[in-house]
Every structure is written in structure tokens, then in C-alpha cells.
Amino acid sequence: MAYDPDLDPILNELRAGQGDLAGRVKALEERPPVDLTGILARLAVLEAGAAPVVTPPPATVPIWSVLKQSQIAIPAELRLPPGTREFYIPVTVDHADRESFYCYVSGFTNISNGGINVGNTASQRANFSGWENVVYRWSPGDDLAHYVKVATVSNYTDGKSFGVVIRVKGLGDKQKGQRVNIVYDANAQPQEPPVPQFHRPLRRLDLSKAQRKNRFDPAAVRWSPSGFDAQGKPIWRSQVAHGRTQDGNQETGLYADETIKGADKPISYDPQERALRLHTRAFEDAERLEWENRLFRHQAAMINGQTMDEVCGVEGVWRMEAKIPVRKYSWPAFWLTGRSANSKRGSWAMWPPEIDILEKFNHAWGAADTPFTTTFAQHYGKAGSNERAGSFGSEIETDQWAGVTKPLDEEYHSWACAVVYHDDPRKAEVTFFFDDVEVGCHVLHARHEDMKTRVEFFPMANVAVKANPSYTAQQYNTDDGRGHTGDMLVRDIAYYPSGFTMPPVGI
């Protein structure tokens, strides 16, 4: 713009009033920059209508005091216009912040005077579609609703009704699901199309670039009660840190090895299976095992890596490949518990925490599980206190979830978990895998209560026994004549501290 002399009076007045402009500009330039990232993020969330950003809990507050169990809501009744052949049952939770869980349609029931006979399982499969082997799953951070789809082959008229049974797994014994009464009502309004919801896809465990820390050769595995050999070198341990029994679990078996008189090859290499065999059995009264002035009818077996640095770590992937027993009252497990090097050498255990990667009860606690059932869980509380603040977990049926067609004692499968920390304790996770596909994900509660200290874990593979006193030795050894083994056959136990990834299934 060209110079205009008529502006001089105005400019002079401005110059007189601004003082040391250069000094003021310099002071402004030297002020630290304002970080607007957080403010802009909050504004974006508010503009999108989502929940506001929540500040992470203080590092001194245990995560189990912050995140509580989800509460699920399933309607008792759903009214539909006559002739509706496809409908959706809304299943919602109050939050999905802590753990994964799922629901599914387990079947259909008749209602008194409902006028519809749903029939047996075969009839239900023929008369209803869109339900069998369909799982609706919540992961931490997912949206709150699922719409459970059911379709009928027939048209049903006004006044007819039947029940849909929705089963829930992963939210404890008090939230196992319920029946939803489907009522055809001429006054009912048609359903609106379901609102799209976000539910994270399952993850796949990718170890192709992971750094393995240990070597496991079943033919070369060595063990001892102390976890050390004659030269003081760490090896696998054949008992738990506090001894050979787990009375707190009401176990009836003695964790034996070849040093126990009368034991029947509790731990051995099976060349045909190319696996380490952890053998359980029952003894007649005259043959019972003796230890510390007690007699035990049942032999249990274990190996644990308590003394072996190469299988211990704060985070990473622990993975076992094995056949596991489905024999009644055998109790196989693959699990992690805390290790503290501050204790006496060879006694480096602290409980809690505990992460159960695999646990199969085989009726040991009255659980009416099947040859396909497997469970996973976390136990948490003040580290090393031997007192549990709480626990949570879930179960899956591998035939439903993964299409397994043979009992778990007939084929080798893998069980694994990935422990990953995060600065925000609500984003630190333990993810569980069966055959390298995710079956569950939890916010990490199996950790130190001060939220700063990171607990080191060591792995254990064992078969416990918890049998009723009236259950005879012959009954146990033959699985009531069914012939199922009470042994675990371990082909591999691996620890990968880093390098693993968990991409979505299908990618």
C-alpha cells in the first residue's frame, strides 16, 4: 500500500502509547508455548457427543478399586407384531471397561399357553435360524449394546409366544443370563433396525517376529523338588514353593516326583508323544503315598519355572502346547504367579498375583464342564500377602468358540496369554489365547497394588486332583470306565518377552 501522510498523526499517537514494543514482543516470544493438545482433544470429544476424557486414576489407587464388574441387562419380554420372522433382542451393559464377556442363544423353551411347541434341539435348529454358534462379545472399550438376532421359519399369529434363552459367560455366577419371552401382539410396533455398534474384532497372536527367551526340549527337561540340580543350576521345579500340597485349594493329591516312595512316574518323557507326561493316578489304601506324616490317595504332578530366569518376566507372552486331561476330578492348569528375588533362594514366590491361562476343573468343584471346556482368570490383591482381594475370569467351550471336534485330551492345542503394561493402568491388559486366537481380554489386575511396581511372573504347568472321598481308586483311574486319561502331555512351554503382535483375526 502507498504511503499516506494524512495517517502520520494517528500513527504517532499509537507509537506514543505502546512503549517498549520490542521488549514486549521479546517477552511474549520467550514465554513457553501452550500445549493445546489436551484441550483440543476434549473439544473434539464433546463435539462428537461422546463421554468426556477421564483422567487416569492416581498411581497409588489399585486398579481393582477403580474398575468394577459390568452389569448386564436383558429384557424379560419382547412384543412383536404378528408375522414378524426376524427380530433382535437388545442386550446391554452399564460399562465395558474391565473385562471381556459374551452372550449367545443357548436354545428355546415353551411358554404355558403360548401355543408354540419349540420341540427338541433338532426341531429348534430347523425352526429357528441365525442363532446357533453365534457369539456376541464385549471387549474393554466396546460399545454397550449387542442385538441378538433370531429368525423364525414360520409366521406366528397374535397371542402366540415362546421363550429365547440367552446365556452369559464371563460375568460370574450371578449374571448367567435369562429367558426372554417373545410375545406376538397385534398392538406391538415393528422393531426399528438395530443401531450399529462398535465391537473390537478378536486378535490373533503373531509370534513370527517375537524374541523367545527359553528353550524347551521335552526329552531333555530336568526337574527337582528345589528347582536346582546337584551343581546348583536352575532347572524345573517339581513342587510349589511352599511344599507338595495345596490344602487351601482342597486338593487331594500330592505333587510327587521320583523322590517320593511309591510314586508312579509322576514326571516322565513319552517318546511316542514327543512330550513330557505329567501323570496322575489314585492308589488303593494300602499303597497310598506318604509325606510329612500324611497319607495321600492321589498323585498329582507339576513343573514350574520359579528358579529359571529364562521363563520369568514382567510382561510378554507365555505359551504352552499340550494335551490336557478331561478325566473326572483331574484338574489341569497352566498359570503364572509372582516371583520375588528378595525371598530365600528357591522360595521366590509371591501370591497374589495370579494369572490362570488355562484351568479345567473336570467336576473338581462341582463344575459340570464338558470335554471342551477351558477357563482363564486373574486373581489379585496385595502382592505377596496370601490374601485375595478378588478374582474374575471366564470359560469357553472350544467346540463352540473354535470349532474343536475332539476332546481336549485327544489333540494338541495351545494356550497363551500376553501381558502388556501401559502408563494408563486402565489400558494395561492381559489377553488370553486358545490356538493363538483371542478368547478373552482383561484390564491387568494381577499386578502390584501401588500401580508402580511391576511384578515378575513365573509359569507353572500341573495336574492337580480334587476327588470326593467316596470316589474309589478304580473309578478315578478308569474315569468311571470311560477311559479318559488323567495326564497332561506337554510339548512346549515358551516365553517371549517382546516382538509379538496381536493383529485382528483375518489380517
Q: Tally the beta strands.
A: 28
Task: Give me the CATH fold name of the largest domain.
Answer: Jelly Rolls
What percent strand? 25-35%
CATH architecture of the largest domain: Sandwich
Number of domains: 2
Instruction: State the helicity in percent bands.
Output: 10-25%
Distance from N terminus to C terminus (CA atoms, Å) equals 61 Å
For the CA atoms, what is the radius of gyration?
A: 30 Å
Largest sheet: 8 strands, mixed
Specify the CATH class of the largest domain: Mainly Beta
Low-confidence stretches: 1-19, 31-43
The geometry reads as globular
Mean pLDDT: 90
Secondary-structure content class: mainly beta
Number of continuous helical runs: 6
Would you summarize the structure shown here?
By secondary structure, the chain is mainly beta.
Defining traits:
Immunoglobulin-like; 2 domains; 8-stranded mixed sheet; 7-stranded antiparallel sheet; disordered N terminus
Written overview of the protein:
This protein is mainly β and 507 residues long. The chain folds into two domains: 65-184, Immunoglobulin-like (Sandwich); 223-496, Jelly Rolls (Sandwich), CATH 2.60.120.200. 10% of the residues lie in helices and 33% in strands. The protein is built from six helices and 28 strands. Strands 12, 15, 18, 20, 21, 22, 23 and 27 form an eight-stranded mixed beta sheet that branches. A hairpin with a 2-residue loop joins strand 25 (429-434) and strand 26. The model is unreliable at 1-19 and 31-43 (pLDDT under 50).
Topology:
Blueprint: H1 8-18, H2 21-30, H3 37-48, E1 72-73, E2 77-80, E3 86-93, E4 101-109, H4 121-127, E5 128-129, E6 136-138, E7 145-152, E8 161-169, E9 177-184, E10 223-224, E11 236-237, E12 253-255, E13 267-270, E14 275-278, E15 281-282, E16 289-291, E17 294-296, E18 298-304, E19 316-323, E20 330-339, E21 350-359, E22 373-380, E23 390-397, H5 398-402, E24 413-420, E25 429-434, E26 437-443, E27 456-465, H6 473-478, E28 488-496
Parallel strand pairs: 2-9, 10-11, 12-18
Antiparallel strand pairs: 1-3, 3-7, 4-6, 4-8, 5-7, 8-9, 13-14, 14-28, 15-18, 16-17, 18-27, 19-24, 19-28, 20-21, 20-27, 21-22, 22-23, 24-25, 25-26
